[in-house]
Write a structure and sequence with these properties.
Largest sheet: 8 strands, antiparallel
Oligomer: single chain
Mean pLDDT: 81
Helix content: 25-40%
Number of helices: 4
Order of helices and strands: HEEEEEEHHHEE
Strand order of the largest sheet: 1-2-3-4-5-6-8-7
């Protein structure tokens, strides 16, 4: 059976409107609904702030937020990983990744992650870089601006956790991860018992 084009368009429009109308409680009002075969349904939204922006992607179970210094977050996710300096935070991993402050090539990652021969696993090395007091101050100011602009309790919890982690960055060396330098582990920043996005 062939579905007429007008009927197919009507069904697609109804699905899109349905997704927008049944967003989970943590989703910011006015967020854009998406659906894909890979990610299922999720929502995106942006906070444009005085000293940068916050770019969000979330579904019922987790959220990822990018805090980008001196950026407006235009088409951030459409064109892949942003090039502006900042941090990313994925709620179920509960650590900050510092992006585009230093070079982070495949070769650097391979060496820092302690990847020897295929039969050998070496300890992960510190990332070897450190944020300056000015860079940390910019991130803390931006995180506070985003927190002050929250519209849902879930956004507030996530940004409060980012602010908490940023407060102790600098107390020890940054670690290495696939994405770049990270604050995991940072002494004094114990992970929450539940994902802060999904917690009620």
């Amino acid at each position: 059976m062939v579905i007429p084009k007008t009927l197919a368009r009507t069904i697609l429009l109804a699905l899109v409107l349905g997704l927008a109308g049944c967003a989970p409680p943590g989703i910011r009002p006015g967020a854009t609904a998406h659906w894909s075969t890979k990610d299922g349904r999720y929502w995106t939204w942006t906070q444009v702030l005085e000293h940068g922006c916050a770019d969000w992607m979330a579904d019922e179970g987790y959220a990822e937020v990018l805090l980008l210094v001196n950026s407006q977050c235009k088409d951030t996710r459409r064109y892949g990983s942003p090039k502006e300096p900042g941090i990313s935070y994925l709620t179920f991993q509960d650590h900050l990744v510092f992006r585009h402050y230093w070079p982070w090539t495949d070769e650097i990652w391979y060496e820092r992650m302690g990847l020897g021969t295929k039969d050998e696993s070496l300890p992960t090395k510190p990332c070897g870089y450190a944020l300056s007091p000015s860079q940390l101050s910019q991130l803390r100011i931006l995180a506070q601006e985003a927190y002050d602009d929250t519209r849902t309790a879930a956004e507030e919890r996530v940004l409060a956790r980012i602010i908490e982690r940023l407060a102790v960055v600098g107390n020890g060396p940054l670690d290495s991860s696939y994405e770049g330098c990270t604050d995991l582990p940072v002494e004094g920043a114990d992970p929450p018992s539940v994902d802060v996005w999904a917690a009620e």
